[in-house]
Amino acid sequence: MTSPVVTVSDRSATAPSGASGSTPRLRTPRRRHSPGRPRRSVLLTVLTGLVLLYSLVPLVWLAISATKTQEGLSRSFGLWFDSDFALWENISETFTYNDGVFTRWLLNTLLYVVLGAGGATFLAVLGGYALAKFDFPGRRAVFAVVIGAVAVPGTALAVPTFLMFSEMGLTNTPWAVIIPSLISPFGLYLMWVFASEAIPTELMEAARIDGAGEVRTFFRVALPLLAPGIVTVLLFTMVATWNNYFLPLVMLKDPDWYPLTLGLNSWNAQAATAGGEAVFNLVVTGSLITILPLIAAFLLLQKYWQSGLAAGSVKE
Amino acid sequence: MTTLQEPVAAEPRPAPPPTRRDRRSWTGWGFLGPFVAVFALVFLAPIAYSVYLSLFRDQLIGGNTFVGLDNYTQALQDDRFWAAIGRVSLFLAVQVPIMLGIALLVALALDSGRLYGRDFFRISIFLPYAVPAVVATLMWGFMYGTRFGLVGDINGALGVSLPDPLSPDLVLASIGNIVTWEFVGYNMLIFYAALRVIPHSLYEAAQIDGAGQIRVITAIKLPAIRGALVIATIFSIIGSFQLFNEPSILQPLAPNALTTDYTPNFYTYSLSFNGQQHNYSATVAIVMGLITMVIAYVVQLRGMRKGV
């Protein structure tokens, strides 16, 4: 009954899975046993370091730029601080500018994430469990249709969805953003792979023999076993919803319903409009505030989502 | 919608262990039902509606009339549409191999166990994935600026004049750089996760046979993660053909280089929301969807047959 989650964490010595306090003690002997442990290479580390720099420099630029005033942005070198340290002013101005519309966007984004990503994860977990653990008519067709649908361009869906939703009176309401966010084909796929490996069928059989109904079996037996997979899917649907731009762009006219992404872009664009005030320092600071929650979520939950992803990784 | 019926990469386990024949029942639908219902509302219904729209034309005189395949004929002869496809094809041919190549090399480096600070590398290179495309594009857009961006800083500091990344000649490469930055870490992680589940016994066997690092990579690692490579390629192709966010957000910075028909997706968006040509827009989107599916399908067939 070795679930792949365990297999993976066994081998990755530095990322022990699970909260079991005994893991560190087990690690040392296992490391000694691993045959021919390769020697660390400075050259390889330096070469990979180039990709690391590429990944981190823009984020460093963003963090440094958030400390600058509008004038400071243009007069100082991008990767170093300006004489004016304006981070706190920028943050407070970001939240108060234009009657605090940024706070409104932040709350909208949270609403879309909680209902959209939460709902998408719930549907994906239910569906993935069904695909992995039940045999039913039409099961194979579902995968084909879902994967096929991923290839359909966003606009092929956005235009007719917009027209449909506008007939139903849903455009320019939060529902227009939330309802399409409820479907995550990648989440369904990940949950399917994960559930088929993480839930022993014997355990379900045992629960049924003990008289548990299907719903009870799902909540009491399956759900706890699915936890790392659920965290993984939740994080990826969260990213998708938090970062969504195209869908709200099409569906929403009223800035009061904008998510952060759309709001930031409108601040950026207002400099180009006649008589519009350039607020690049707020765009930069707002951008930083926008990405921090997701980065924090990934960092805090990394051992869970990485084990979930490893089990869900495609293999032959 | 049946083009990709061969599940990409191994379908997760042949079938649920059909413990007993009579287990085959409708129970599973109770769990899958909610997903399928919403899926039908937000995917299938719009696709069907799109096909319906593409068969009509809204004319000033005569109103909404059925025109059969006329819109499709128009799309196939539309130079702006083909120019947009040409751009994303070029983008695809250059950006996707670079991005996946870097991602694969980093994944192999991480998996080799030869890096100092492996976990720091893995998580840091992945982080850009958590950055919204809007923020990534705004950020790179600022940095690209020759007047007060990083490019301008370098020009000033070194007394050189680097070419403007937002000029018509370079803007496609500049967009490629943004997309690469956003997704290198994500693809790296997919590859890395696939590498981690290769049974250790294979490496031990290879070691006994005296295989070197390179040989282990070509004979064991790459074949083992072929499924992951194919699926990453397919998703990258789909992503390239759907390119929209980056060019549309950069557009105010480079209005001459980035026209509203720069990519097929941008073109359909403009047709629909600036030009009110919903029917023609739906047609263009369908043609693009079909092209995407055909290419994804071909890649999948080749990838599954011949390996990487």
From TrEMBL, chain A:
InterPro entries: MetI-like, MetI-like_sf. It is found in: Cell membrane. It holds the Pfam family BPD_transp_1. Its main location: membrane. Residues 106-301 form the ABC transmembrane type-1 domain. Residues 27-37 have a biased composition (Basic residues). It is a multi-pass membrane protein. Signal peptide: none annotated. Keywords: Cell membrane, Membrane, Transmembrane, Transmembrane helix, Transport. GO terms for biological process: transmembrane transport. Residues 12-26 have a biased composition (Low complexity). GO terms for cellular component: plasma membrane. Residues 1-11 have a biased composition (Polar residues). The keyword Cell membrane applies. The chain crosses the membrane at residues 41-64, 110-132, 141-163, 175-196, 217-242, 278-301. The keyword Lipid metabolism does not apply. Residues 1-37 are annotated as: Disordered. Belongs to the binding-protein-dependent transport system permease family. This is Putative binding-protein dependent transport protein. It comes from Streptomyces ambofaciens (strain ATCC 23877 / 3486 / DSM 40053 / JCM 4204 / NBRC 12836 / NRRL B-2516).
Automatic annotation (TrEMBL), chain B:
The chain crosses the membrane at residues 29-52, 81-108, 120-143, 170-195, 224-244, 280-299. The keyword Membrane applies. It is a multi-pass membrane protein. GO terms for biological process: transmembrane transport. Signal peptide: none annotated. This is Putative binding-protein dependent transport protein. SUPFAM superfamilies: MetI-like. CDD domains: TM_PBP2. The lineage of its organism: Bacteria, Bacillati, Actinomycetota, Actinomycetes, Kitasatosporales. It is found in: Cell membrane. Pfam families: BPD_transp_1 (PF00528). Keywords: Cell membrane, Membrane, Transmembrane, Transmembrane helix, Transport. It comes from the Bacteria. GO terms for cellular component: plasma membrane. Residues 85-299 form the ABC transmembrane type-1 domain. PANTHER family: BLL4140 PROTEIN, DIACETYLCHITOBIOSE UPTAKE SYSTEM PERMEASE PROTEIN DASB. Belongs to the binding-protein-dependent transport system permease family. Residues 1-22 are annotated as: Disordered. It comes from Streptomyces ambofaciens (strain ATCC 23877 / 3486 / DSM 40053 / JCM 4204 / NBRC 12836 / NRRL B-2516). InterPro entries: MetI-like (IPR000515), MetI-like_sf (IPR035906), UgpAE/MalFG_permease (IPR050809).
